[in-house]
Amino acid sequence: MQKPTKLANFEQTALPHLSAAYNLARWLTRNEADAEDVVQEAYLRAFKYYGGFRGGDSRSWLLTIVRNTCYTWMQQNRARELTTVFDDEIESLSSDAANPESRLLSSIDSQLLKQALEALPIEFREVVVLRELEGMSYKEIADIADVPLGTVMSRLARARKRLHQYLTNDQHREYPHEV
């Protein structure tokens, strides 16, 4: 019996996560063609450095590469989108607020939700995509984004609050990119 090649091992490790990789890249770049380019570049990078992968969570490993590739691509092509001013006000969300918000998000029009997600700053958009669309844990997101766990939780809370504000504000229909 032949020993599996590096390519065969890589394909077995990385290809099951192609959909998640594209999903993350699509939401970060906000463009299907750019996302395809970024995912292709990310997979080439992942293959190049596959020898350094020591097992473990291949999905997190690959999505980290996709995220980093997205940010590199955006620095080269859309640097102004990467600069976001964060307000330092402390925002608190009670655990009861998540249930009505979840109900609201599940009942709204998907196009409106897409607009709301695209209106978020990239740092907020990525945590929402990884948590809500990819079902990743806070720890996995912290590892992928290379930020502390508290930062993930803060960004997610702020993103949810902005989504809620956007989705409950009638003015967004006239000014879709203002939140």
Provide the fold topology:
Layout: H1 6-14, H2 18-29, H3 32-48, H4 58-77, H5 95-107, H6 110-119, H7 122-133, H8 138-145, H9 149-167
Helix pairs in contact: 2-3, 2-4, 2-7, 3-4, 4-8, 6-9, 7-9, 8-9
The helix tally amounts to: 9
Oligomer: single chain
- What is the terminal separation in angstroms? 59 Å
CATH class term of the largest domain: Mainly Alpha
Unreliable sequence segments: 84-97
What percentage of the residues does DSSP assign to strands (E)? under 5%
CATH architecture of the largest domain: Orthogonal Bundle
Given the C-alpha coordinates, what overall shape results? elongated
CATH superfamily of the largest domain: Winged helix-like DNA-binding domain superfamily/Winged helix DNA-binding domain
Brief characterization of the structure:
By secondary structure, the protein is mostly helical. It has helices at 6-14, 18-29, 32-48, 58-77, 95-107, 110-119, 122-133, 138-145, 149-167.
